[in-house]
């Protein structure tokens, strides 16, 4: 099957353990050539940990925007990018919050920003939570657990106080599916 855009050449511009940036020389269906910059990152999991009427968020400093932000627990395993998404979600929930869930409900899959990045994310609703001990990575040493009534969380999303797109999207999709 013919693609709308064909790749003529590809080169890695930058790479570290979290991402790869590549530049592709492309040709469009019209025959016009161009370049396309692509960020490659492994898929991640995002988790809505809910117990009764409380949702558990994390707050951490986000260097790229220079401020602390509230968001849902989320992450990828760079050393195991093909990990089972549910195991990844359970692992990230435990790592960031210390919580274990009796039930992990799959909400869906979305892409983060497919205009320039191939990364997607699996959304899970975690229920039947029990508190354990966090196991944070060095990059997460400032992470705090923030329990919040679901109604207050809803108000913060609608009011634009919570700005993480994947957090807002995960919540919206779970809500639209009637899971919250």
TrEMBL record:
Record bears the keyword Glycosyltransferase: no
Coiled coil location: none
CDD domains xref list: NUDIX_ADPRase_Ndx2
The keyword GTP-binding belongs to this UniProt entry's keyword annotation: no
Protein name: ADP-ribose pyrophosphatase
Taxonomic classification: Bacteria, Pseudomonadati, Pseudomonadota, Gammaproteobacteria, Alteromonadales
Cofactor(s) essential for the protein: Mg(2+)
PANTHER family given in the database record: NUDIX HYDROLASE DOMAIN-CONTAINING PROTEIN, UDP/ADP-SUGAR PYROPHOSPHATASE
Swiss-Prot/TrEMBL keywords: Hydrolase
